[in-house]
Each structure stands twice: as C-alpha cells, then as structure tokens.
Amino acid sequence: MNQYTMKSSHRNLLFGAMGIGLVCLILTWLSDDAHHTRFWTNFLHNSVFFTMISAMALFFITASITAYAGWYTTFKRVWEAFSMFLIIGLVLLAIVGLGNYMHWHHLYHWADEAEVAKDTILKGKASFLNKNWYMGATVICLGAWAFFAVKLRSLSLDEDKSGNSNYTQHKTMRVYAAAFLPIVGFTSAALLWQWIMSIDAHWYSTLFAWYATASAFVTMVALTILMIIFLKNNGYFDIVNDNHMHDLGKFLFAISVFWTYLWFSQFMLIWYANIGEETIYFRERYDNYPALFFGNLAVNFLVPFIVLMRNDTKRKFGSVTFVAIIVLIGHWVDYFLMIKPGALINRNHALGHGHDHGAEVGHDAAHGAEQAVEHASNFVSGFTMPGLLEIGTFVGFLGLFAYVSLVVLSKSSLVAKNDPYLEESLHHHVV
C-alpha cells in the first residue's frame, strides 16, 4: 500500500493520549503554586523537546539533499511529516514568549526588570536576554524554519506530480536546503540559549547548544524508527528494508555516543576550570539531582551502546524498538534535567523561599555558584523527579506529535515516486 489511511482505532488512541495530556495540564494548573511554575515548566519542556525533534528532521532532510544522499528516499516522507510540527511548535513557544510580557510565568529571572537592575551579571546579558529578543527570535527564527519545511515538502509533492525529467523541483530543493543549513545552525543555538539555558541565567556554556541539539537529533532518529516499524506493521513501507533500518540503527548508536562525548566534555571542562558562573549548573544537578544526573548518562549511553554494538541487532525490530523507546524516554528526561532545577530555584525566589539573586552579585565570579545551589532540598513533586502529571503531559504531546505526523502522511503518497534518488534507495545495501 502506498497511501496511508489512519484507522479509527489509531485516531482514537491518539485522541486519548492528547486528552490525557490536556487533563494533566489542567490538573497541574489547579494544584500548582501561585506562579504556576510546574505547569509552565511542563509546557516549555515538551514544547521545546518536540519542536527540536521536528527541526532535526528538517535538518536531516536538508543535509541529505545537500550531500546528494539517496539512501533515505524510500522513507523521506516520514521526516517531511515530522517537520510539519514546526508550525505547532511556533504557536506553543510564542505562547511562552507572550507569557514574559503578560507575567503569566516566572520561568526566567531575567524577565523581571527590577531584578535585572540589581543583578550585575544579568545587566551584562540584558542586550540578549530580554523579552523582545526572546519573542522576536522565537517568531522570526521558528517562522523561518516552518517556511523551509513547508516549501521543501511542497516541492517534494510537486515532484511527484510533474515527473519532470529535468528534475527542476529537486534542483530547487537543493537551493533551499543549502540556504537552510547555515540558518538553522546559527539560529538553533540562539533559540536554545534563550528557551533553556537562560533559565539558569547566571550560567553559560559554549557546548550547550551542541549538547541539546544532539539530544534532540538522536530522539528524532528513535522516533523515525518507531514510526517506520509502526507503518510496516500496518502493511505499509514494504520498500523500506533491513538495510535502511540498519543505517537508522547506526545513526541511533553513533549519535548516542556523540551525545555522551558532549555530555562528558561539557562536564569535564567546566568542572576542571572551576569558574563560578559555569560550575553553578553542574553543582546544582550533581548535589541535588544525583539519580537523574547519573541515570541520564547510564540510560542514554549504556543501553544503546551495549545493545546496538552488534551489527545484527540493528536489523532486528525487537532490539531497535526497545532501544528507540529507551532513547525517547531517556532524552525527554535529559531535557527535564536541563529545565527543572533552574526553574525550581527561580520559583523559590519568586515565592520568597530562596535568598536574593541580586544580593552582592558581581563581587566575585564564584558568587553565582553560592546563590543558586541554595534551594529547597526536600523532594518537590514535578521538579525533583518527573511525576505522574509530567508523564501524562509527555504522553499528550507525544500523541499530538504522532497525530500531526500521521495526518500529514495521509495527505500524499508514502513514496516519493519521482525523486531522482529513489532507485538508489530501493537498491540500498549495507555491506
């Protein structure tokens, strides 16, 4: 079968998942503190996580087009479908940006002008960390990503209809793909600094954007594997063979190792330098979130490394499905650990439970570490560890992402029949 049709049972399942997510968000709001910090961190966490997965699908398409790659052509519609979620992500993250103006949340310490005025470190970053830059960069950059996603999919579909022997559409796609790569390279770093890194506003890392992007990239590969296996189990994608799955398994393995390299590099270099406004981030997580901190490394490195080290396991649906699910959940927890500890400090400060961020900031660089390590040391549901509401919200966003992707897949042929590299992909073989 070459045209996907969503079954009513699958639609109901996804609607149920989205319903669970909506109910969990409502319950989080109703049971939250005065600033609804748990609600907004859950909203931000999942919005950024799935938006970045979508962006990485678009990145992989454009990188492959630019590199004249052909192996992925049989299933490229999956990545095109993933990339369409960027439109939803634009709306979700614009809501977060609007919240900075409307004082709906206290996610970012730098969004409070009164606090910035008495904080030397935040004053120095105010030209970048401000509401206008946050909202403008989110709307303009994410809007640009969504434009490229829509344009490339449109050209891909036109290619199906025209059957042009001159491959006019594909040549145009190469132009757009080459233009997108430097745009996403620069803007993704700036957006990740604003969306996530600026929650810990006194901290910075030159490796953070690479780290967060690698986490999203390997999750995108995991979701690609799960989507292909789902479609194959329902009678679609017969032309996607063991060799394609083998290469996806290699990417799952390789990027997991690359992510681990970035994890260690960021941790080792910052810990070794022992500069206050850098070590603040790791000391907070090392001291107060040890289970998540070390579990993150174990799950996201050891499981894919051990299971996928053998060549044959990359071709076994059971093995790659297991690893893909672990990677999906593991890197969702990775983003949780990027966001929640800093947000908890900001929440405690906003509620008057922590000490003044601005007090004597700037006397010395190490002072930043002292002020942020101090936080509520007792277990805080939804912050210290993901709770049922966090898991339910994740299920809802995952259902939304899958629903959007499957609806997009149902709108066109699953096979790009006039892609110039289709024949190469059909005969793709891994030695």
List the helices and strands and how they pair.
Blueprint: H1 8-30, H2 37-66, H3 76-83, H4 85-102, H5 113-117, H6 120-125, H7 131-162, H8 168-195, H9 208-233, H10 242-273, H11 276-288, H12 290-308, H13 317-350, H14 367-373, H15 388-410, H16 422-426
Helix pairs in contact: 1-2, 1-15, 2-3, 2-4, 2-8, 2-9, 2-13, 2-15, 3-15, 4-7, 7-8, 8-9, 9-10, 9-13, 10-12, 11-12, 11-14, 12-13
Instruction: State the domain count.
Output: 1
What would the principal axes of the Cα set say about the shape? Answer: globular
State the end-to-end distance.
28 Å
Helix content: over 70%
Series of H and E elements: HHHHHHHHHHHHHHHH
- Poorly predicted ranges (pLDDT <50, ≥5 residues)? 355-377
Mean pLDDT: 91
Count of alpha and pi helical runs: 16
Query: In total, how many beta strands?
Result: 0
> What structural class do you assign from the helix and strand content?
mainly alpha
CA-based gyration radius: 22 Å
The fraction of residues assigned to DSSP E strands is under 5%
Largest β-sheet summary: none
Describe the structure.
By secondary structure, this protein is mainly α. It has one domain. Helix content is 72%, strand content 0%. The chain has 16 helices and no strands. It has helices spanning 8-30, 37-66, 76-83, 85-102, 113-117, 120-125, 131-162, 168-195, 208-233, 242-273, 276-288, 290-308, 317-350, 367-373, 388-410, 422-426. Helix 4 (85-102) packs antiparallel against helix 7. 46% of the residues are buried.
